Amino acid sequence: MFSNFVFAQSAPGNIRFNLTFGSQPVEIGKNYYSPATGDSIKLEVVKFYISHLQFFRDNIPLAVLKKQHMLVDAGNPETLHFPIPEEAAGKFNRVVFNLGTDSLTNVSGAFGGDLDPTKGMYWAWQSGYINLKLEGVSKACPARNHYFQFHIGGYQSPFPSCQIIDLPAIAKNDLTIEVALDSFFSQVNIAETYQIMSPGQQAVSFARLFASLFSLAK
Amino acid sequence: MKTLLFYLLFPVLLCLAFAGKTGYEFLYPDYFPTPVYDFSKNPLSTERVELGRVLFYDPILSKDGAISCASCHSPYNGFAHTDHDLSHGIADQIGTRNAPPLFNLAWHTSFMWDGAINHLDMQALAPISHPKEMGENIENVVRKLQHIPGYPGLFYRAFGDSLITGEHVLKALSQFQLTLVSAHSKYDNVKKGKTQFSQPEENGYALFQKNCNSCHREPLFSNFGFANNGLPVDTTLYDFGKGQITQRKEDSLKFKIPSLRNLSYTYPYMHDGRFRRLSEVLSHYTHGIQENETLAAELKTPLSLTPDEKTDLIAFLLTLNDSAFVFDPKHQFPKEILQPGEGLLKQ
Fold it and tell me: Is A124 within 8 Å of B125 when comparing Cβ atoms?
């Protein structure tokens, strides 16, 4: 039983998003000490779209992940990994993907699967996907119940929030992409910025910062 | 064995193959432009249109089961809300805008008075979620529908899947609304060569073409753009329209240009329903326009109309009433499937 579990964890041919806080894996509802704010941070929602994930060898495209839009949810381990297409396995040395949904998807009506509006990642008052949600509790946050909420989206010029992430990768079967959330809290002053829920300059800056948290696991 | 299995499964496969596949022909006159809505992403079928009609009339879409889409978009009012200046939601709450009529939606390039919604499929999310309208959310709507005997079957017949999704709810609602085509007014019959305008209507048509057609462009009687038509700001609402959505100064006080079809059924007029009569609307354009930075270029000089010309212009506007559309039983309450106060009849 246990060995099966280990095997599943390290099965070759998977791309995996590893959400971390310092040296620890992110768990929803768990408290983490944040050296930046000097208090504890509890994450309640960490969800984001990854779209059009492509595998390259240098500048040659090898394969595109069949599932075009994937909703990665820290609260659902099933959403954190995807099989690498055969055409790319063992050959790629670079992955390129969007953090968020592209503008075409945002103007093309209703979709199912991970893009279904029942996933809570679509704004009702103004058309457009929420590309990423980050919510939680920090004493430093002056909002009600110290609850911070970032719903980041927007596809229209001049404030498109979708970010392209281009990472060099080692040409092997497995790939782990780390998302270092502690680094977010060391760069954002949660006492001042704790609520973004509409498209605009602030949302774009936030999306850029969040994109910078992605790196290849060492 | 394989053959046996095939014969056993054949009726099932046949049902699957034909789920939602009774073609629905989308008809419109040849002088209408090509629709904007991409039907290839949501092909019309009789079953899907019918499901959309049931959803449109079912108050289950609201939080307390009191309000359906049709509460504010009544078929007999051209799918607007006669006598209500502002929309009326659950628990007798009053919103901030006039419920617009629904017809010829396949030609609209954006939705809502401020253009906040970019696609018909996504429009229903706004009233479903608004606390002063239906006060519900799409996740919960799907959950409720899944548990009502009859709905999974209707979804199966429409989409080949009895597992209800947000996508299918929204697409079915779109389908019904897309079939609301208004193209049988006297104006249309004149266009089709079936009848002729009276002299006052003919005079009014000429005045319309000279004064109104740049924004309320025929044959749909809107170019579906946005304009500031010089209405003074209502200080009980402070509604700045499109500017609130785009955060751009140049969009301040711009509202979506409404179609002029079915005006006799869709009063009161304007985004806040401030005018009850067409004569008041015309008086606004001749004497009421307030000059400001974003005022439409076409209105910098107010309209100049004699009392006779106003009468003629109104005579023409009344030729845009489409009673065949407004009283079309195909668009009305689906009493064979839904029962008022009872909900969906067992299928």
Answer: yes
